[in-house]
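Field reference: sequence -> structure
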Amino acid sequence: MQRVVAAAYLAEGKSIIHDADPSDDSQAALKIIEDMGATVEKGDVIEIESSGIGVESTKLNCGESGLGLRMFSPIASLSEKEVTFDGNGTLKNRPIDFMEEVFPRVDVECSTKNGRIPMKIKGPLKGGKFSFDGTHTSQFLTGLLMALPKAKEDSIVIVNNLRSKGYVDLTLEVLRDFGVKVSNERYQLFRIEGGQSYRAKEVHIEGDWSGGAFLLVAGAIAGRVKVKGLTIQSCQPDHAVIEVLEKAGADILFSMSSIVSEKNQLKAFEFDATNCPDLFPPLAALAANCKGTSYIKGTHRLEFKESNRTQTIMEALKKVGIFSKENNDRLIINGGPISSGTIDSKGDHRIAMMAAILGLNSEGSVKIKNAECVSKSYPAFFDDLASLGAKIS
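Structure field:
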């Protein structure tokens, strides 16, 4: 939803958002565009009225949203004003030093606090040629792809070692929906014509596969779960959870309006999650419930998430009696009986949800510290889990 919010800000006129996501990250995005000058009305739908570019506030708070920081900073740099970006919680620990290298190459001033927020930028971003490494994140690329069509000059963006191409597809899809053209050459070179106009429109937000993945795993290990609102032909990378569940032996049924995941005898699996790193936590919970040793590749993508996610996953699994280790860019997990224990989410929303899924098939209760952090992406997670029969206190 954050991409749609950004596009609605860049469009002139009124955009209407249906099926809005109530997560903290999405609310932070709405607050950012309000501070930049858009009018936001919340109700059964969200209405966004914008005049395009016009940063009114010089201080923008991204909450804990890494996407919000990396996406809105190029957008804000279209203005000539100096803007300070800040945030809360885990976002304060996430590195952004590469932005200090990229922005000055196109005459945008950028300074950080030792490679972390707060970050100050001052444009205007006029366009030009950008080149950077995409090994750790595609989020800054998303910001450039959204901002550069509004720049005065044409632009070329060269990206080396791009990961998470599916997230870039999401961005390109939003751009097309709002009438903006970007040429994509094998995800290595992007050509953007400057001076384009975003077209305000009415949008229905697609269901979130990142959150849905936890529910589908819950069905595979503990019973039967029907999830509505997920688009089967989605370009969201976390759609790949279906492939893994089928590999592991879960029964998956599709209908026009829902996906059903049902418990079955589960076997160990191997999967490369390099391009969908948010699947590591639900897949770790799945692997803990599988017979045998599972291998999930791509741990290098997890170092700079809301926590050092590989380490946090392994610590959580150990707390409930599951052996795991990291080796050769893989998380290796031996399935087995899950004991009672206490898991500290470290403020990482996906670790809190993983802990809850582990508790569904445990020999005793699993306690979760800082469980409220799920509001970052899925505020209704525990309510939805309880509605499926989970005992939560």
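Note: DSSP finds twelve helices and 22 strands in the chain.
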